Amino acid sequence: MLRRYILLNTNKFVNCRHVSQSMLQSTVDEKSGIATVTMNKPPVNSLNLEFLDEINTQLNKLQKDKIRGMILTSGLQKVFCAGLDITEFYNPNPDRLAKFWTVLQDTWLSLYMASFPTVAVINGHSPAGGCLFAMSCDYRVMVGPKYTIGLNETKLGIVAPKWFQDTMVAVIGQRKAEVSLTTGKMYTTDEALQVGLIDESLPDADSALKKGTQFLNNFQRISPWAFKMTKDISRQPTVQWLIDNKQKDLDFVLKFMQSPDVQKSLGLYLQSLKK
Ligand SMILES: CCCCC/C=C\C/C=C\CC/C=C/CC(=O)SCCNC(=O)CCNC(=O)[C@H](O)C(C)(C)COP(=O)(O)OP(=O)(O)OC[C@H]1O[C@@H](n2cnc3c(N)ncnc32)[C@H](O)[C@@H]1OP(=O)(O)O
């Protein structure tokens, strides 16, 4: 059941409905219909099976609730999202890995094709799957200058799946994405702005949230139907491959992730992170 709360959010009191509270906090401003979804899974918002499932469930719920827009952000100090939880890949249980990857596919489809406008307020580092989530929103506002964002998979000795790559191509174009992906480039906020990976850079989280809200306010006079149809037409070429190849993509990941060479690279990378 929905309850009314006064919520302290970025030093401001706002009237909102409190929708859920766990690893994910979701609040909806009653006046604007804008939801703020805050990832809060310390230490780094890594995306494991349970967290992804919660995010996907929440996205579907917001869609049913017919919200007018969503800000996706982080409740952690310096990390937006560290990407997929690498421990899901290391010495994996094949059944769990299959569930994990399927939920990831579904969550990406829900976010990328959300019927409402979405903004990522990137208030911390955003590597790999974190960058994928940010790129899947309709607009990106990043807090600068000290955080980084990018698809760094090659640096882990793994390969960004086709749909990760296609999402980047859709944002920054083929040539820049190719260089970015092959080098596993992590961009500083300024570099990300220059290459078009983010839309705006702000010095602090409060002003970034304000900018995000301003962007969403653009849609107050636009019919939700016209917005959704336009977004569908624009994004359909990027999602179609995964829609047509979900099983093939999953089979590939199961095989790829269980190969000794990939396991060795992942083990070394995990060790380096622990250090
Ligand atoms: C031929 C055709 C091929 C087609 C290919 C098809 C399929 C390929 C198959 C699969 C592709 C798989 C794609 C994966 C995408 C990903 O998202 S992989 C994840 C990549 N993420 C990273 O590399 C981020 C690593 N983390 C960091 O850089 C930093 O942690 C940070 C985010 C910058 C934060 O730094 P900070 O100093 O604040 O924190 P710590 O580094 O001290 O970390 C704290 C704690 O958290 C653990 N940790 C960090 N990141 C992760 C993670 N992603 N997963 C799990 N755990 C993580 C870290 O180890 C620390 O742990 P502790 O020491 O035990 O406290």
Automatic annotation (TrEMBL):
Gene3D superfamilies recorded for this chain? 2-enoyl-CoA Hydratase, Chain A, domain 1, 6.10.250.170
GO CC terms in record: mitochondrial matrix
Which reaction equation describes what this protein catalyses?
(3Z)-decenoyl-CoA = (2E)-decenoyl-CoA; (3Z)-dodecenoyl-CoA = (2E)-dodecenoyl-CoA; (2E)-tetradecenoyl-CoA = (3Z)-tetradecenoyl-CoA; (3Z)-octenoyl-CoA = (2E)-octenoyl-CoA
Q: Which InterPro entries match?
A: ClpP/crotonase-like_dom_sf, Enoyl-CoA_hyd/isom_CS, Enoyl-CoA_hydra/iso
Compartments where found = Mitochondrion matrix
Q: Would the keyword ATP-binding be found if you checked this record's keyword annotation?
A: no
Pathway(s) the chain acts in: Lipid metabolism; fatty acid beta-oxidation
Q: Which SUPFAM superfamilies match?
A: ClpP/crotonase
Which GO MF terms does the UniProt record name? delta(3)-delta(2)-enoyl-CoA isomerase activity
| PROSITE patterns (UniProt xref) | ENOYL_COA_HYDRATASE (PS00166)
Entry keyword annotation includes Cytoplasm: no
**Alphabetically ordered keywords of this record:** Acetylation, Fatty acid metabolism, Isomerase, Lipid metabolism, Mitochondrion, Transit peptide
Q: Name one Pfam family in it.
A: ECH_1
One GO term under biological process is: fatty acid beta-oxidation
This chain's function reads:
Key enzyme of fatty acid beta-oxidation. Able to isomerize both 3-cis (3Z) and 3-trans (3E) double bonds into the 2-trans (2E) form in a range of enoyl-CoA species, with a preference for (3Z)-enoyl-CoAs over (3E)-enoyl-CoAs. The catalytic efficiency of this enzyme is not affected by the fatty acyl chain length.
Q: How does it assemble?
A: Homotrimer.
Q: Which family does it belong to?
A: Belongs to the enoyl-CoA hydratase/isomerase family.
Protein name stated in the entry = Enoyl-CoA delta isomerase 1, mitochondrial
